[in-house]
Design goal:
Elements lengths: L11 H12 L5 H14 L12 H13 L4 H20 L27 H8 L9 H20 L3 H5 L6 E2 L4 E4 L2 E3 L4 E3 L8 E4 L5 H11 L15 H15 L4 H14 L14 H14 L4 H8 L4 H7 L5 H20 L10
Antiparallel strand pairs: 1-2, 2-5, 3-4
Helix pairs in contact: 1-4, 2-4, 3-4, 6-9, 6-11, 12-13
Length: 353
């Protein structure tokens, strides 16, 4: 090709690192976390010359992950990340082609989705109170993350949008929230929305109003709605707070965590993970909001606006889930429709026709 590459620039590791430097500053913290996870799996190719890696090797790697039980979404992430690294190498004349273009994901790979949380868990979140054994500090932290979760559940905000909320964005008289910024947890800086559709004004449901008023009475001194020790939340702090929320929802006290750590330390030096029957992510609350809105009869275009999506297709494809109750009601309506047709002779077919 007329290009001479030194040995240290021919390996998969070199080009993966080069791609990382180009990509990390331009993507969100959540997206980058997915890429980092994928690169850890792909590190099996680190010592290989990138020009020698074939589509057969990539497909064999994907099939191995498939046999290990990885979902279709994860397999697509692995292939997509590998493809991006190869594209970077190709643009710089290190490879002639991108072998990932010929790699397919097994059709039978399990499909996972971020389901909406149940009505029972939603109610438990609304009624959640600190446990009697909680220290004042732990109780205060729980109240903060619970309020954060309720805003996501009730208004469909992204995690970064909720973290970047200022008190001037919330109008309790008009009962709405104006969204115009988001906190990038990776950089700790505020930024504009992902698209123009992200600028929006969402209504505050009546049930959330007294909760917000009570929260404001105790926290209106700060600029931001969810300040932690007087500052914006960091990714590490948020993870710790979210873990606390899930522990409290599962009635796991701090003393349980300490006992578990001591017991595990005697055996392995590592803490075990206490089982949580109730477990969900912050983003699942946004999914739940969308599902609740559709179930309430709100049209897709309006739900698209409330979520800040650029297209209704994304709203339908990713963020709405049919609940068991909705499916049961659909079955009942179909049965009623069939009964109506039979009673009116619509289904009767004469012999010979």
């Amino acid at each position: 090709m007329g290009v001479c590459l030194t040995d240290d620039r021919t390996t998969w590791h070199y080009w993966a690192e080069a791609w990382k430097k180009l990509t990390e500053p331009s993507v969100s913290a959540g997206t980058w976390l997915n890429y980092e996870t994928a690169l850890k799996h792909l590190s099996v190719f680190d010592g290989e010359k990138i020009s020698k890696i074939t589509s057969l090797e990539i497909e064999s790697f994907i099939n191995e992950k498939f046999k290990e039980g990885y979902s279709k979404r994860t397999l697509a992430l692995l292939r997509g990340t590998a493809s991006r690294v190869f594209k970077t190498a190709k643009r710089n004349n290190a490879v002639l082609q991108n072998p990932c273009e010929d790699v397919s994901i097994p059709k039978s790979a399990p499909v996972t989705s971020r389901c909406a949380i149940s009505k029972e868990v939603q109610e438990k979140l609304w009624n959640l109170q600190p446990m009697a054994s909680d220290s004042p500090e732990r109780a205060a932290r729980l109240k903060l993350i619970r309020m954060f979760a309720l805003i996501q559940l009730s208004c469909g905000l992204r995690r970064g949008e909720a973290a970047g909320l200022q008190w001037r964005d919330i109008n309790l008289k008009r009962r709405d929230i104006s969204i115009s910024r988001s906190l990038d947890f990776k950089t700790g800086r505020l930024k504009g929305p992902k698209s123009a559709a992200g600028n929006r004004c969402v209504p505050i449901p009546d049930r959330l109003i007294p909760e917000l008023k009570a929260w404001k009475r105790g926290h209106s001194a700060g600029l931001f709605v969810f300040e932690y020790h007087g500052k914006l939340l960091t990714s590490t702090e948020f993870s710790s707070l979210w873990s606390l929320l899930l522990d409290e929802l599962n009635n796991i006290a701090l003393s349980d965590r300490i006992k578990d750590g001591i017991a595990a330390g005697k055996r392995t030096g590592r803490r075990r993970k206490l089982f949580r029957p109730i477990a969900f992510t912050s983003h699942q609350l946004r999914h739940t909001f969308a599902s609740n809105a559709i179930a309430a009869g709100i049209d897709v275009r309006s739900v698209q606006y409330l979520l800040g999506h650029a297209s209704p297709e994304m709203t339908l494809a990713v963020y709405t889930h049919a609940s068991p109750r909705a499916l049961s009601e659909a079955r009942q309506k179909l049965n009623e429709y069939d009964s109506f047709k039979e009673s009116n002779g619509v289904n009767s077919v004469q012999k010979g026709q």
